[in-house]
Amino acid sequence: MALSGSYDFNETCTQIVTDALLAIGQLGRGDTPSANQLSEGRNVLNKMVKMWQGKNIFLWTRYRDWE
Known about the structure:
Elements lengths: L12 H11 L11 H20 L13
């Protein structure tokens, strides 16, 4: 599989939370998450990112070594 070398992949918080809910079976394909699900999902995502930052893992500085 050829890689483009592009690093501009970008997803919104809502897309990440929706994909996570789909992956764990809390949302059906084509369904829309409720406001409460999105709020709780954003909260958990923010906590995860803060935890990674506390461990000096900064997502914008991660190097992909498969190239």
